[in-house]
């Protein structure tokens, strides 16, 4: 698996790994320190076409790392191999506690693929987060004076058809591009037929130093059973498509402080 021309190292994931992960001193000294001034790593994996940017602080990767671990459903006891491809681009290969490489799949086809594969070679891990990171449902939200005052953000009506949401769930986690998270209350308006978040939206905006008129592209993440995530999307094709539509017509599938019919 390891190419001798591609320096690599591995890290077991211990309690607290979501907050950051430390680069081994030997690898850092030989391949990173003094070799580049870049402080941003680009992480890629076979699970997605997306690239995650992670901030390096000394020998520790912090900002953005939690976003990556959430997307890949990484857990305590997993082992992750980092292969340095070029210019601070790393290919990441996660292994489960069974010491088998983790294969990601949509939940509804886990059993089918497991039956067809060799259980000694792979470990199947289905996660709503990974399926949603293929932009299962992505939408634009605007910070307005009214939704800040009310501490309430309505999700577009189309969000009601997302498998990430159910009316029994009372919380939602907001995640920014750095991987930091905020908990908000999730409610469903029977009269309007829409989900909305409250008691947490204002704090999210304040902590992220948002101004009125700022725009977010959010991705809805979840499996309909666990607490759903509302993740700020990194710049991508979908990001610019939604932004372009908004700027061209100033209306449409955009979350706001009032119901959108």
Topology:
Layout: E1 8-12, E2 21-22, H1 25-32, E3 40-45, E4 48-57, E5 60-61, H2 65-71, E6 79-86, E7 89-95, E8 101-105, H3 110-116, E9 122-126, H4 128-132, E10 138-142, H5 145-150, E11 152-154, E12 171-175, E13 181-189, E14 194-198, H6 201-207, E15 215-221, E16 229-232, H7 237-249, E17 254-255
Parallel strand pairs: 3-7, 8-9, 10-17, 12-16
Antiparallel strand pairs: 1-6, 2-5, 3-4, 4-5, 6-7, 10-15, 11-14, 12-13, 13-14, 15-16
Structure commentary:
The protein has 261 residues and is of the alpha+beta class. Helices cover 20% and strands 34% of the residues. The protein contains 7 helices and 17 strands. The strands form 3 sheets. It has an 8-stranded mixed beta sheet with strand order 11-14-13-12-16-15-10-17. Strands 1-6-7-3-4-5-2 form a 7-stranded mixed beta sheet. Strands 8-9 form a two-stranded parallel ribbon. A hairpin with a 4-residue loop joins strand 13 and strand 14 (194-198).
